[in-house]
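Quick one:
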Amino acid sequence: MGCPTPLTPWLVSMTLRAWYVTSKVKRGAALREGSGIAVMSSCALYYFSSTGNSLAVALALAERLNAPEPISIPGSLVLPDPYFAAREAERVGFIFPTHRATLPEMVRGFIAKMPEHTDCYYFAVSTYTIFGCNEFADIDELLSAKGKRLNYAAAIQMMGNVGLRAPATRMVERRRANMREQVDEIADAVMNRQETYLPRANKALAYLVKRFTNARRRSIVFKVDKRCTRCGVCVQVCPAQNIELSKDGARAPIRSDKCEACLACVRWCPAEALSTRQAIHNRYHNPDIKPEQLNRTPQDTTPTTG
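Output:
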């Protein structure tokens, strides 16, 4: 994500913030070493992912927690009850990428309608490329409106689409290894219902970044060139169900009225036929994830204990 020059000092501040949250997890894990692991009861993991990074984290976390399969937020929205898994869960987690210095709009709307649940432990894990900002404070504010709070939060730096060149394989592998280490620490914290200090929201920074990026979001113009094979991957990965294949040609028109501006369609297009007018991103997507995994609808609508 591009960022105006006046925000540069804040990049350092937000990077230090992410380091603080992660280091706090490490300190907590060190204190618990040798003390045994709490027995997990029910846990519901909800994710939103465009590059596949957040899904990779959610899958690793589910395995480490011995929890049910993570639930796609976009996929769950087509169910009669999107919150079926959260209603009886003792722990509910949200895993998502940082968008425009906060959480994606779809995730915000999902959490805002989260049903009230007594004694539930809420946690969040964000993935970011350059810096996070207000995502955790914003979730805490949403939950506070229901008399709850965000108990624990952690941020994981992953490879992303910033820059014109694809990231080097060595760097991708390094970030993947770091992710697995952090997931172990996060899982320990969640199993022990650890509490995290949440930094106060930086409203001034949020306003500036949101104003800048919303202008870019409104100006996004998608282009589809003759390389399009009508394979349907763009339809599959769009979280907003905002893409339709044309019936009378080899082009895939994109309506931008509901667009989340996540650019999953651009990143996952196997023919690289999709692009935007502002070509400032590469086409990275997580090598461990397949496009059909991103937004799949949960098959079982019964809460599971794991």
